[in-house]
Design brief:
The chain has eight helices and eight strands. The model is unreliable at 1-8 and 93-97 (pLDDT under 50). It is 41% helix and 18% strand. The two termini are 34 Å apart. Strand 1 (21-25) and strand 2 form a beta hairpin.
């Protein structure tokens, strides 16, 4: 069962306008953004969302960036009606706004209570293991549909935990993984000792689940796998200072440092997946 923390439900909504389309692939609605004409296609990426699902513009705009860099980007609606309402982000911002009036804070608190049923639905109806199976099936469908050689996964929070589960399966239909501030009931270092596919992990300075101790244990575990696995394991763990859990997908664009760290994390993820696809060892 996935148990979201307060940081899983914090952040902001991006102001941009996604340019892709929504279509059904298999049994799921998906946001799809293909590279523009003239852009060389390097592979595909399944972008696994956080608890707010695939309708929030943030994750769709990330897919657009992947497409601009040569990826067929697909964002599945695997949470469906269990996705947490995006209004919760606005409420969380108001609660922490020192200039907010008592009435505004009261309204925000009521909005948070209104969103609680979707949090409970997510916890009990969308276990990450079941979602991982659906994402694995989707990856195979994407590979067949677009005829690409490589399919990667970009995951955020809940979706990052899904990525960790799939990266432990040698026979899964995904070739490489990049997960940002992953969340879930995975264990460190135990679950990272099981990873067998290339993996990139983006971590925030402030994270209730993964602190400096867990980060070091994660790095040690992946290095151990690299020494034992035939052919080694391509992996990279990055830590971004001055930001908190959720920054890579919900970080406030209006805060210069957060925006810079968020863009740097996405650039690094794209670079890693490309390196994994081409089996390069230098990142």
């Amino acid at each position: 069962m996935f148990i979201p923390s307060p940081l899983c439900c914090s952040g902001s909504i991006d102001a941009g306008t996604p340019t892709g389309r929504v279509e059904v692939i298999g049994d799921m609605e998906c946001y799809v953004r293909e590279p523009d004409a003239g852009v060389v296609v390097t592979g595909a990426v399944v972008v696994c969302t956080d608890v707010f699902g695939f309708k929030v513009p943030n994750v769709r705009l990330i897919a657009d960036v992947f497409a601009a860099n040569g990826f067929v980007a697909v964002v599945p609606d695997y949470l469906q009606r269990a996705a947490v309402r995006a209004e919760l982000l606005d409420a969380e911002c108001i609660v922490h706004d020192r200039e907010a009036t008592i009435w505004q804070r009261f309204q925000a608190a009521m909005l948070i209570l209104w969103c609680m049923p979707s949090l409970l639905l997510l916890m009990f109806m969308r276990p990450q293991l079941a979602t991982a199976k659906r994402v694995n099936t989707l990856a195979n469908q994407v590979r067949t549909r677009w005829g690409v050689t490589h399919v990667g996964l970009q995951g955020y929070c809940y979706g990052g935990g899904v990525g960790i589960l799939l990266s432990q399966q040698q026979d899964c239909h995904l070739d490489a993984f990049s997960v940002a501030h992953p969340g879930g009931l995975f264990r460190i270092p135990a679950d990272f000792l099981k990873i067998v596919k290339p993996i990139h992990v983006v971590l925030a300075e402030t994270d209730l689940q993964i602190g400096p101790k867990q980060r070091n244990e994660m790095i040690d575990a992946l290095e151990q796998v690299d020494s034992l696995l035939e052919g080694g394991l391509l992996s990279k763990v990055e830590w971004f200072d001055g930001v908190r859990h959720g920054f890579a997908v919900r970080g406030n664009e209006q805060v210069a440092h957060v925006k810079q760290q968020r863009e740097a994390a996405l650039t690094s993820s794209i670079r890693f997946l490309n390196a994994a696809f081409s089996k390069k060892s230098s990142l």
